[in-house]
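Kindly go through the following sequence and its backbone structure tokens. Advise at your convenience whether the structure tokens fit the sequence:

___
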Amino acid sequence: MELLEKTDDFKGHGSESTVTIGVFDGVHRGHQEIISECVREARRRGIPSVVLTFERNPREVVSGEFPCVITAPRRKITILEELGVDFTISVRFNSRFASLGPDRFCRLILEGHLGAREVCVGENFHFGSGGKGDVALLARQGEVLGFQVDVVPLISVGGETLSSTLIRRLIGEGRAGEVTRGLGRPYTVTGRVVRGHDRGKRMGFPTANLSLVRDFCVPADGVYAGMAILGENGYRCAINIGSNPTFGDEEVALEVFMIDFDGDIYGESLEVEFHHRLRPEIAFKGEKELARQIEKDVEAARSLL
């Protein structure tokens, strides 16, 4: 897969393409259906598949909102490559791009820069200035400009339409199993290991304290079973998110106890997957009671994973 920064960079790689468009934060199962359809149509036609996505969430520019990040950009690129995409164009979304009306977007970007012959989108797709363009308008433009529109049905998780907004809510509610079903994989954050209070070490459970490298969505406070990826190796782990009420802390911390691991990893990058939520955060009477519960949490994580 090739990465491009501007839509007109594609001109040197082909005169036609199949295209899909979106932020694709999370690249959840609904996104995967749309992208896979784009790839299938490209192969059927013998032309490249193009994912047009954005370096930053358009909501930051359009409405001043800053949604938490579900998938780090590098991880998103890896997933797109695994789905068989030929070209990913990560556009810098700014006020100029936001001002493009739907008709202008179709003529300049889809026809002019990408030579679109098929555009694959979800049922609720909107585009152009103010989100005024919808699937019906896109189809009308396709008839004029010579591209077909392939509308991919939405899918549901737990009776709700799957979307990045839903995934963010499920993460915030600690519903790790439903998040996994929606994403098609466990939710993952990446951070750097920093020094903490060393309380876990004192109780016989040394933890890696993680400073997140992006504004990732943070799961609800509590204890989770998951996997910690260090380099090319994976370790079962028990993860605690919260303010440690037993000790009266106020700042929320993310601590990871890596099962069957012994080593100094301060300063290292650690990727953490959330598989199951074991329990909410609880205030204990003291270290001994907390240590007994941590032992139970670790055994639960070991057996679940």
The longest strand covers residues 269-279. The two ends are 33 Å apart (CA to CA). The CA atoms of residues 239 and 256 lie 5 Å apart.
